[in-house]
Write a structure and sequence with these properties.
Blueprint: E1 3-7, H1 15-18, E2 27-31, H2 38-43, H3 52-66, E3 75-80, H4 91-102, E4 108-112, H5 127-150, H6 159-177, H7 183-198, E5 208-214, H8 216-220, H9 228-234, E6 237-241, H10 244-255, H11 261-287, H12 296-302, H13 316-328, E7 333-339, H14 343-349, H15 353-359, E8 364-370, H16 376-388
Helix pairs in contact: 5-6, 5-7, 5-11, 7-11, 10-11, 13-14
Length: 391
């Protein structure tokens, strides 16, 4: 029997699919769903100078183990690590200390990274895992973009969300079985997704267009942004958020000249393959009437003059490039989110916002920090400032 692989929340619109990439004879992946008191629980075991996502991830893992639902002796925890200029890159070692202190020394920790760090705990990356992960990223992008742009205009509320969930079940079964993962079949599914969302009955409305850019955890995880997507949807906003393929291609682009030769070659190969699929995916979505960011290569070219393209620390130039591109697509209200305590995010992300605002006089950028010490009223007031300002 496979052991249970606990996966902390990170990518809300992708992990329901992406988790199947980590299934094996040894591990059965389970997405963690605990949500209450996570930061307080995590802060019992870490000093408060770490970034907010570290507390949330630790709190979610500890809450799951304390629930009694899982046998610690038969559990592992998957920790994603970029391995870059980020204090989260030492998260797995800090988590080991926290688990030992909390009385769970038998729980295994597995590092998911492509930088060959923490070799003794690294989750082996296999070709089937890569194929499933790439398909999940592409399908997740198609579903998130279509749902976010249909939801504010649907005649029968809840239709887009229900369709998204049905597709998650269908595609999850494909990934579990390892079927339909050829390039042709992946793209056929993308065309089917776009067409299915276009069939939802909609009516013209006055929804506000709001783009969300920023640090990956805070942008994509409801725990990190306090259910920002749900809040904006309730305010009848059409949300523009870049998908996971842009982040993956950005990472490959900025790391294609780093590391050993075999790693650089692998990045170039995967970048060409995924970049080609992304271009066709976006063509299907645009044919169906959806707005999308340009493909990563084109996005980078357009970012010249807006973002310092030699800035590749953390999310680097991607944050600014996405903001400028969304503004050009009519999403002139841009919410820039990051966790408090993320030094690369504050310096290389937030440090670009003032200059970018001057270059985008017809747009409005509002920066929001999320932290355990920040009140909900403070965050909501900043979001409301963005929504209520007339442009």
């Amino acid at each position: 029997m496979p052991r249970t692989l606990l996966i902390p929340a990170l990518l809300d619109d992708w992990f329901p699919l992406l988790r199947h990439a980590f299934a094996s004879r040894e591990w059965e992946p389970v997405l963690l769903r605990e949500e209450r008191g996570l930061a307080d629980r995590g802060m019992r075991y870490f000093h408060n100078e770490l970034c907010y996502p570290v507390f949330l991830v630790a709190g979610q893992v500890l809450a799951a183990l304390e629930s009694g639902e899982y046998d610690p002796a038969e559990c592992g925890v998957l920790m994603g690590q970029a391995g870059d200029e980020c204090r989260g890159s030492c998260g797995i070692r800090l988590m080991r200390k926290a688990l030992d202190k909390a009385g769970y020394p038998e729980v295994a920790l597995l590092s998911l990274n492509v930088r060959d760090i923490d070799r003794d705990t690294g989750l082996p990356i296999t070709l089937p895992m890569i194929r499933r992960a790439l398909a999940a990223a592409v399908w997740g992008d198609a579903l998130a973009i279509a749902r976010n742009q249909v939801r504010p205009y649907e005649v029968r509320p809840g239709g887009a969300e229900a369709l998204w969930r049905r597709w998650m079940e269908t595609l999850g079964e494909d990934l579990r079985r390892g079927t339909g993962l050829s390039r042709r079949r992946i793209l056929e599914r993308c065309r089917e997704i776009a067409a299915s969302f276009r069939r939802i009955e909609t009516a013209p409305g006055d929804a506000r267009r709001v783009a969300v850019v920023g640090e990956i955890y805070t942008k994509y995880c409801h725990l990190g942004n306090w259910n920002l997507e749900r809040y904006l949807a309730a305010e009848r906003c059409e949300i523009g958020v870049g998908g996971l393929t842009w982040y993956a291609l950005y990472y490959m682009d900025t790391h294609s000249l780093k590391g050993p030769a075999y790693q650089r070659k692998a990045y170039r190969f995967l970048s060409e393959w995924l970049g080609g699929i992304q271009r066709e995916l976006l063509a299907f979505l645009r044919e169906a009437g959806f707005h999308t960011l340009p493909p990563l290569a084109e996005l980078k070219r357009r970012a010249e003059g807006f973002a310092p393209l030699n800035c590749t620390v953390a999310d680097g130039w991607l944050v600014t490039a996405e903001a400028a591109a969304w503004a050009g697509l009519g999403y002139r209200k841009i919410l820039c989110v990051q966790p408090f305590g993320c030094l690369p995010g504050h310096i290389f992300g937030k440090g670009q916002y003032a200059a970018l605002q001057r270059k985008l006089p017809d747009a409005l950028l509002v920066s929001v920090d999320y932290d355990a010490s920040t009140g909900e009223g403070t965050v909501e007031s900043r979001v409301r400032m963005l929504l209520d300002t007339e442009l």
